[in-house]
Amino acid sequence: MRLSKLASEIAESPTLALNEEARLLRERGEAVINLGIGEPKNKTPINAILASAAKLTSGEVKYVPADGLPSLKKAIIRYTEENYDRLAAPENVIVTNGAKQSLFNIMYSILNPQDEVIVLAPYWVSYPEIIKMCMGRPVIVTPEDGTFTPRFEEIERAVTSYTRAIIVNSPNNPSGVIYPPALIEKLVDFCERKGIYLICDDIYHKLTFDDNTAAPAYRFTKKDIEDSHIIVVNGVAKLYGMTGFRVGWVVAPRELVRVMTNVTAQTTSGVSPVSQAAAEGALNGLQSVVEALRLHIQNNRDVLLQEFKSFSGVRLIEPQGTFYALPDIRAFNGNSVEVSRFLLKKAMVVTVPGREFGMEGHIRISFSGSVKDVTEGIARIKWALDPTSPNEIYIGDKKMIRDWM
Q1: CA 385 to each of CA 76, 256, 390: distance values in angstroms, whole numbers, following the listed order
Q2: Where are the beta strands (DSSP E) in 159-244?
Q3: Residue 64 in contact with residue 276, Cβ under 8 Å?
Q4: Per residue in 253-279, pLDDT tens?
Q5: Domain residue extents for the chain
Q6: How far apart, in Å, are the Cα atoms of 74 and each of 219, 220, 353, 361, 364?
Q7: Helices (H), 329-402
Q8: Going by CATH, does the domain composed of 61-284 fall within 3.40.50.2300?
Q9: The domain 5-43+288-398: what is its CATH number?
Q10: How far is the C-alpha of 319 from the C-alpha of 310, rounded, in Å?
Q11: For 335-361, what is each residue's pLDDT tens digit?
Protein backbone atom coordinates (compact mmCIF):
# COMPACT_ATOMS: atom_id res chain seq x y z
CA MET A 1 0.00 0.00 0.00
CA ARG A 2 1.37 3.39 -0.99
CA LEU A 3 0.85 6.10 1.61
CA SER A 4 1.71 9.76 1.90
CA LYS A 5 5.27 10.30 3.14
CA LEU A 6 4.13 13.36 5.10
CA ALA A 7 1.30 11.51 6.83
CA SER A 8 3.41 8.42 7.48
CA GLU A 9 5.99 10.48 9.36
CA ILE A 10 3.41 11.86 11.83
CA ALA A 11 3.83 10.17 15.22
CA GLU A 12 1.02 8.34 16.94
CA SER A 13 -0.46 10.16 19.91
CA PRO A 14 1.19 8.44 22.91
CA THR A 15 -1.55 9.58 25.29
CA LEU A 16 -4.34 8.07 23.21
CA ALA A 17 -2.33 4.88 22.63
CA LEU A 18 -1.71 4.37 26.35
CA ASN A 19 -5.35 5.14 27.15
CA GLU A 20 -6.41 2.48 24.68
CA GLU A 21 -4.03 -0.05 26.22
CA ALA A 22 -5.41 0.78 29.67
CA ARG A 23 -8.96 0.35 28.41
CA LEU A 24 -8.18 -3.12 27.09
CA LEU A 25 -6.61 -4.09 30.42
CA ARG A 26 -9.70 -2.86 32.28
CA GLU A 27 -11.92 -4.93 29.99
CA ARG A 28 -9.91 -7.96 31.10
CA GLY A 29 -10.70 -7.08 34.70
CA GLU A 30 -7.34 -5.56 35.65
CA ALA A 31 -7.33 -2.84 38.34
CA VAL A 32 -5.74 -0.15 36.17
CA ILE A 33 -5.26 3.41 37.43
CA ASN A 34 -4.98 5.97 34.65
CA LEU A 35 -2.63 8.80 35.60
CA GLY A 36 -1.96 9.54 31.96
CA ILE A 37 -5.12 11.14 30.67
CA GLY A 38 -5.59 14.91 30.66
CA GLU A 39 -9.27 14.88 31.47
CA PRO A 40 -11.08 16.18 34.56
CA LYS A 41 -13.50 13.69 36.10
CA ASN A 42 -16.22 16.22 36.93
CA LYS A 43 -19.67 16.02 35.38
CA THR A 44 -20.58 18.38 32.55
CA PRO A 45 -21.95 21.66 34.00
CA ILE A 46 -25.74 21.63 34.17
CA ASN A 47 -26.06 24.81 32.08
CA ALA A 48 -24.13 23.13 29.28
CA ILE A 49 -26.34 20.03 29.48
CA LEU A 50 -29.56 22.02 29.42
CA ALA A 51 -28.42 24.23 26.55
CA SER A 52 -27.29 21.29 24.40
CA ALA A 53 -30.44 19.31 25.23
CA ALA A 54 -32.61 22.25 24.20
CA LYS A 55 -30.82 22.49 20.87
CA LEU A 56 -31.13 18.76 20.33
CA THR A 57 -34.82 18.54 21.20
CA SER A 58 -35.61 21.51 18.95
CA GLY A 59 -34.74 19.33 15.99
CA GLU A 60 -32.91 22.26 14.40
CA VAL A 61 -29.55 20.57 14.14
CA LYS A 62 -28.37 21.78 10.73
CA TYR A 63 -25.36 23.39 9.11
CA VAL A 64 -23.99 26.41 10.96
CA PRO A 65 -21.60 29.21 9.96
CA ALA A 66 -18.09 27.82 9.53
CA ASP A 67 -16.67 30.34 11.99
CA GLY A 68 -19.24 29.57 14.70
CA LEU A 69 -22.73 30.47 15.87
CA PRO A 70 -23.18 34.21 16.49
CA SER A 71 -24.57 33.56 19.98
CA LEU A 72 -21.51 31.52 21.00
CA LYS A 73 -19.18 34.11 19.50
CA LYS A 74 -20.97 36.73 21.59
CA ALA A 75 -20.27 34.68 24.72
CA ILE A 76 -16.60 34.32 23.70
CA ILE A 77 -16.34 38.07 23.09
CA ARG A 78 -17.63 38.72 26.61
CA TYR A 79 -15.25 36.09 28.01
CA THR A 80 -12.36 37.80 26.22
CA GLU A 81 -13.28 41.19 27.59
CA GLU A 82 -13.66 39.89 31.16
CA ASN A 83 -10.50 37.77 31.20
CA TYR A 84 -8.16 39.58 28.80
CA ASP A 85 -9.38 43.18 28.96
CA ARG A 86 -9.70 43.29 25.17
CA LEU A 87 -12.67 44.12 22.98
CA ALA A 88 -13.05 41.58 20.18
CA ALA A 89 -15.26 41.94 17.13
CA PRO A 90 -17.13 38.89 15.79
CA GLU A 91 -14.64 38.92 12.90
CA ASN A 92 -11.81 38.35 15.41
CA VAL A 93 -13.28 35.06 16.66
CA ILE A 94 -13.53 31.60 15.15
CA VAL A 95 -14.99 28.50 16.84
CA THR A 96 -13.22 25.19 16.18
CA ASN A 97 -13.52 21.48 16.87
CA GLY A 98 -11.45 21.73 20.02
CA ALA A 99 -8.31 23.76 20.72
CA LYS A 100 -6.30 21.15 18.81
CA GLN A 101 -8.06 22.10 15.58
CA SER A 102 -7.51 25.74 16.49
CA LEU A 103 -3.77 25.14 16.55
CA PHE A 104 -3.80 23.11 13.34
CA ASN A 105 -5.79 25.76 11.47
CA ILE A 106 -3.50 28.52 12.75
CA MET A 107 -0.42 26.67 11.51
CA TYR A 108 -2.04 25.82 8.20
CA SER A 109 -2.96 29.47 7.74
CA ILE A 110 0.38 31.10 8.62
CA LEU A 111 3.07 28.62 7.50
CA ASN A 112 4.74 28.13 4.15
CA PRO A 113 6.97 25.08 3.58
CA GLN A 114 10.07 25.18 5.81
CA ASP A 115 8.85 28.11 7.90
CA GLU A 116 9.85 27.67 11.54
CA VAL A 117 7.84 27.69 14.76
CA ILE A 118 9.61 27.90 18.10
CA VAL A 119 8.33 25.38 20.62
CA LEU A 120 9.33 25.66 24.28
CA ALA A 121 10.20 22.38 26.01
CA PRO A 122 8.60 20.72 27.76
CA TYR A 123 5.77 21.00 25.26
CA TRP A 124 2.43 19.41 24.52
CA VAL A 125 3.06 16.38 22.34
CA SER A 126 0.95 17.59 19.40
CA TYR A 127 2.76 20.90 18.77
CA PRO A 128 5.68 19.51 16.72
CA GLU A 129 3.47 17.06 14.84
CA ILE A 130 0.91 19.73 13.90
CA ILE A 131 3.70 22.00 12.66
CA LYS A 132 5.14 19.19 10.54
CA MET A 133 1.69 18.36 9.16
CA CYS A 134 1.53 21.95 7.91
CA MET A 135 4.98 21.54 6.28
CA GLY A 136 6.70 23.74 8.85
CA ARG A 137 9.72 23.03 11.03
CA PRO A 138 9.44 22.87 14.82
CA VAL A 139 12.44 24.45 16.53
CA ILE A 140 12.69 23.16 20.10
CA VAL A 141 14.10 25.39 22.84
CA THR A 142 15.00 23.41 25.96
CA PRO A 143 15.94 25.24 29.19
CA GLU A 144 19.65 24.90 29.80
CA ASP A 145 19.38 25.17 33.59
CA GLY A 146 17.41 21.96 34.12
CA THR A 147 14.15 23.74 34.94
CA PHE A 148 10.99 23.86 32.86
CA THR A 149 11.19 27.61 32.17
CA PRO A 150 13.41 28.81 29.31
CA ARG A 151 15.23 32.11 29.53
CA PHE A 152 14.32 34.78 26.99
CA GLU A 153 17.91 34.77 25.67
CA GLU A 154 17.59 31.07 24.81
CA ILE A 155 14.44 31.74 22.83
CA GLU A 156 15.91 34.78 21.09
CA ARG A 157 18.94 32.76 19.93
CA ALA A 158 16.65 30.26 18.21
CA VAL A 159 14.93 32.91 16.07
CA THR A 160 15.92 33.07 12.40
CA SER A 161 14.59 34.78 9.29
CA TYR A 162 12.33 31.72 8.85
CA THR A 163 10.65 32.06 12.25
CA ARG A 164 6.92 32.68 11.88
CA ALA A 165 5.64 32.02 15.38
CA ILE A 166 6.43 31.14 18.98
CA ILE A 167 4.03 28.93 20.97
CA VAL A 168 3.54 29.69 24.66
CA ASN A 169 1.55 27.34 26.89
CA SER A 170 1.28 28.71 30.43
CA PRO A 171 0.27 27.06 32.71
CA ASN A 172 2.26 24.42 30.92
CA ASN A 173 1.30 20.94 29.87
CA PRO A 174 3.13 18.71 30.89
CA SER A 175 5.07 20.40 33.72
CA GLY A 176 2.46 22.58 35.43
CA VAL A 177 4.84 25.57 35.56
CA ILE A 178 3.61 29.11 34.99
CA TYR A 179 5.95 31.30 32.97
CA PRO A 180 7.02 34.48 34.81
CA PRO A 181 5.27 37.70 33.72
CA ALA A 182 8.68 39.17 32.85
CA LEU A 183 9.24 36.41 30.27
CA ILE A 184 5.79 36.92 28.72
CA GLU A 185 6.41 40.67 28.58
CA LYS A 186 9.73 40.22 26.76
CA LEU A 187 8.17 37.77 24.30
CA VAL A 188 5.29 40.13 23.53
CA ASP A 189 7.65 43.05 22.92
CA PHE A 190 9.98 40.90 20.81
CA CYS A 191 7.22 39.40 18.67
CA GLU A 192 5.54 42.75 18.05
CA ARG A 193 8.87 44.30 16.97
CA LYS A 194 9.84 41.37 14.77
CA GLY A 195 6.41 40.70 13.26
CA ILE A 196 6.36 37.16 14.68
CA TYR A 197 3.11 35.59 15.87
CA LEU A 198 2.91 34.78 19.58
CA ILE A 199 0.48 31.86 19.84
CA CYS A 200 -0.87 31.63 23.39
CA ASP A 201 -2.35 28.24 24.21
CA ASP A 202 -4.41 29.37 27.21
CA ILE A 203 -6.48 26.21 27.62
CA TYR A 204 -5.45 25.93 31.33
CA HIS A 205 -5.27 29.63 32.13
CA LYS A 206 -7.64 29.52 35.13
CA LEU A 207 -6.42 26.23 36.59
CA THR A 208 -3.74 27.73 38.84
CA PHE A 209 -2.76 27.11 42.47
CA ASP A 210 -1.64 29.00 45.57
CA ASP A 211 -2.80 32.41 44.33
CA ASN A 212 -0.57 32.11 41.25
CA THR A 213 -1.95 33.58 38.04
CA ALA A 214 -0.94 33.13 34.42
CA ALA A 215 -0.26 36.59 32.98
CA PRO A 216 -2.12 37.03 29.67
CA ALA A 217 0.01 38.29 26.80
CA TYR A 218 -2.42 41.14 26.08
CA ARG A 219 -1.44 42.70 29.42
CA PHE A 220 1.90 43.72 27.92
CA THR A 221 0.77 45.54 24.80
CA LYS A 222 -1.41 48.57 24.15
CA LYS A 223 -2.29 47.31 20.69
CA ASP A 224 -5.78 46.08 20.05
CA ILE A 225 -6.53 42.60 18.71
CA GLU A 226 -6.55 43.77 15.11
CA ASP A 227 -3.08 45.31 15.18
CA SER A 228 -1.35 42.80 17.44
CA HIS A 229 0.63 39.65 16.59
CA ILE A 230 -0.89 37.88 19.61
CA ILE A 231 -3.13 34.88 18.89
CA VAL A 232 -5.10 33.40 21.78
CA VAL A 233 -6.36 29.80 21.77
CA ASN A 234 -8.86 28.59 24.35
CA GLY A 235 -11.81 26.25 24.82
CA VAL A 236 -14.19 24.56 27.24
CA ALA A 237 -12.44 21.18 27.51
CA LYS A 238 -10.25 21.70 30.56
CA LEU A 239 -11.83 24.55 32.57
CA TYR A 240 -15.31 23.05 32.39
CA GLY A 241 -14.32 19.39 32.04
CA MET A 242 -16.07 19.23 28.65
CA THR A 243 -13.44 17.31 26.70
CA GLY A 244 -15.92 15.29 24.65
CA PHE A 245 -17.80 18.28 23.25
CA ARG A 246 -14.79 19.35 21.14
CA VAL A 247 -15.24 23.12 21.24
CA GLY A 248 -12.33 25.53 21.10
CA TRP A 249 -11.84 29.00 19.73
CA VAL A 250 -9.28 31.48 18.48
CA VAL A 251 -9.11 35.24 19.04
CA ALA A 252 -6.91 36.84 16.39
CA PRO A 253 -6.70 39.56 13.71
CA ARG A 254 -9.64 39.30 11.32
CA GLU A 255 -7.53 38.51 8.24
CA LEU A 256 -6.16 35.41 9.95
CA VAL A 257 -9.66 34.47 11.12
CA ARG A 258 -10.92 34.89 7.55
CA VAL A 259 -8.32 32.47 6.20
CA MET A 260 -8.94 30.02 9.05
CA THR A 261 -12.65 30.16 8.27
CA ASN A 262 -11.93 29.14 4.68
CA VAL A 263 -9.79 26.24 5.95
CA THR A 264 -12.63 25.12 8.23
CA ALA A 265 -15.20 25.46 5.47
CA GLN A 266 -13.17 23.14 3.24
CA THR A 267 -12.47 20.55 5.95
CA THR A 268 -14.93 20.09 8.83
CA SER A 269 -17.50 22.69 7.69
CA GLY A 270 -17.83 23.82 11.30
CA VAL A 271 -18.61 22.65 14.82
CA SER A 272 -21.77 20.73 15.73
CA PRO A 273 -24.50 23.15 16.85
CA VAL A 274 -25.27 20.83 19.78
CA SER A 275 -21.69 21.15 21.03
CA GLN A 276 -21.70 24.90 20.41
CA ALA A 277 -24.90 25.25 22.43
CA ALA A 278 -23.25 23.35 25.29
CA ALA A 279 -20.20 25.64 25.18
CA GLU A 280 -22.44 28.69 25.17
CA GLY A 281 -24.32 27.31 28.16
CA ALA A 282 -21.06 26.78 30.04
CA LEU A 283 -19.75 30.27 29.30
CA ASN A 284 -23.04 31.95 30.18
CA GLY A 285 -23.78 29.79 33.24
CA LEU A 286 -22.55 29.94 36.81
CA GLN A 287 -18.76 30.18 36.79
CA SER A 288 -18.51 28.63 40.24
CA VAL A 289 -18.11 25.28 38.45
CA VAL A 290 -14.67 26.38 37.28
CA GLU A 291 -13.61 27.37 40.79
CA ALA A 292 -14.97 24.10 42.19
CA LEU A 293 -12.91 22.15 39.67
CA ARG A 294 -9.83 24.27 40.39
CA LEU A 295 -10.13 23.63 44.13
CA HIS A 296 -10.55 19.90 43.57
CA ILE A 297 -7.46 19.78 41.38
CA GLN A 298 -5.42 21.90 43.79
CA ASN A 299 -6.31 19.48 46.58
CA ASN A 300 -5.16 16.60 44.36
CA ARG A 301 -1.93 18.50 43.65
CA ASP A 302 -1.33 18.97 47.38
CA VAL A 303 -1.88 15.25 48.00
CA LEU A 304 0.52 14.40 45.17
CA LEU A 305 3.23 16.66 46.62
CA GLN A 306 2.81 15.02 50.01
CA GLU A 307 3.11 11.54 48.49
CA PHE A 308 6.28 12.49 46.61
CA LYS A 309 8.02 13.65 49.79
CA SER A 310 8.66 10.01 50.67
CA PHE A 311 9.65 9.00 47.13
CA SER A 312 13.41 8.46 47.26
CA GLY A 313 15.36 9.38 44.13
CA VAL A 314 12.67 11.41 42.39
CA ARG A 315 13.00 15.13 41.73
CA LEU A 316 9.76 17.04 41.24
CA ILE A 317 9.33 20.69 40.32
CA GLU A 318 6.10 21.76 42.01
CA PRO A 319 3.22 22.28 39.56
CA GLN A 320 1.73 25.78 39.76
CA GLY A 321 -1.21 25.02 37.48
CA THR A 322 -2.87 22.54 35.07
CA PHE A 323 -3.34 19.02 36.47
CA TYR A 324 0.02 17.55 35.50
CA ALA A 325 3.35 16.84 37.17
CA LEU A 326 6.57 15.90 35.41
CA PRO A 327 8.82 14.06 37.89
CA ASP A 328 12.43 13.31 37.02
CA ILE A 329 12.90 9.52 37.20
CA ARG A 330 16.46 9.28 35.83
CA ALA A 331 17.69 7.84 39.14
CA PHE A 332 15.82 4.64 38.19
CA ASN A 333 15.99 4.62 34.39
CA GLY A 334 16.75 7.37 31.90
CA ASN A 335 14.48 5.82 29.26
CA SER A 336 11.00 7.18 29.98
CA VAL A 337 9.29 4.92 27.44
CA GLU A 338 10.68 1.86 29.21
CA VAL A 339 9.60 3.26 32.58
CA SER A 340 6.03 3.94 31.45
CA ARG A 341 5.73 0.47 29.92
CA PHE A 342 7.19 -1.07 33.07
CA LEU A 343 4.76 0.80 35.33
CA LEU A 344 1.79 -0.27 33.24
CA LYS A 345 2.92 -3.91 33.19
CA LYS A 346 3.98 -4.26 36.83
CA ALA A 347 1.93 -1.64 38.71
CA MET A 348 -1.07 -1.25 36.40
CA VAL A 349 -0.60 2.53 36.32
CA VAL A 350 -0.76 4.60 33.15
CA THR A 351 1.80 7.41 32.82
CA VAL A 352 3.12 9.18 29.72
CA PRO A 353 6.81 9.10 28.76
CA GLY A 354 8.52 12.46 29.09
CA ARG A 355 10.31 11.83 25.80
CA GLU A 356 7.07 12.71 24.02
CA PHE A 357 7.13 16.17 25.64
CA GLY A 358 10.77 16.88 24.86
CA MET A 359 11.87 15.88 28.38
CA GLU A 360 13.49 12.46 28.34
CA GLY A 361 14.11 11.01 31.79
CA HIS A 362 10.75 12.25 33.09
CA ILE A 363 7.21 10.86 33.11
CA ARG A 364 4.01 12.87 33.05
CA ILE A 365 1.49 12.17 35.78
CA SER A 366 -2.04 13.55 35.62
CA PHE A 367 -3.78 14.30 38.91
CA SER A 368 -7.12 15.26 37.35
CA GLY A 369 -9.00 12.27 38.76
CA SER A 370 -9.91 11.29 42.30
CA VAL A 371 -7.77 11.61 45.43
CA LYS A 372 -7.90 7.81 45.67
CA ASP A 373 -6.43 7.49 42.18
CA VAL A 374 -3.62 9.88 43.08
CA THR A 375 -2.68 8.25 46.40
CA GLU A 376 -2.98 4.66 45.21
CA GLY A 377 -1.35 5.42 41.86
CA ILE A 378 1.69 7.07 43.44
CA ALA A 379 1.91 4.24 46.02
CA ARG A 380 2.07 1.71 43.19
CA ILE A 381 4.72 3.72 41.32
CA LYS A 382 6.82 3.97 44.49
CA TRP A 383 6.42 0.22 45.06
CA ALA A 384 7.58 -0.50 41.51
CA LEU A 385 10.55 1.89 41.44
CA ASP A 386 11.68 2.86 44.93
CA PRO A 387 13.65 0.09 46.74
CA THR A 388 12.99 1.79 50.11
CA SER A 389 9.23 1.30 49.73
CA PRO A 390 7.43 -1.79 51.12
CA ASN A 391 8.07 -4.97 49.15
CA GLU A 392 4.41 -6.00 49.02
CA ILE A 393 1.30 -4.21 47.77
CA TYR A 394 -2.29 -5.02 46.86
CA ILE A 395 -3.33 -4.20 43.31
CA GLY A 396 -7.05 -4.72 43.23
CA ASP A 397 -7.57 -7.91 45.20
CA LYS A 398 -4.18 -9.36 44.25
CA LYS A 399 -1.23 -9.33 46.62
CA MET A 400 1.87 -8.44 44.61
CA ILE A 401 5.48 -9.03 45.70
CA ARG A 402 8.30 -7.03 44.14
CA ASP A 403 10.94 -9.44 42.84
CA TRP A 404 13.01 -7.32 40.48
CA MET A 405 15.24 -5.51 42.96
Answers
A1: 46, 49, 11
A2: 163-168, 197-201, 230-235
A3: yes
A4: 999 999 999 999 999 999 999 999 999
A5: 5-43+288-398, 61-284
A6: 22, 25, 40, 45, 36
A7: 336-342, 371-385
A8: no
A9: 3.90.1150.10
A10: 17
A11: 999 999 899 999 999 999 999 999 999
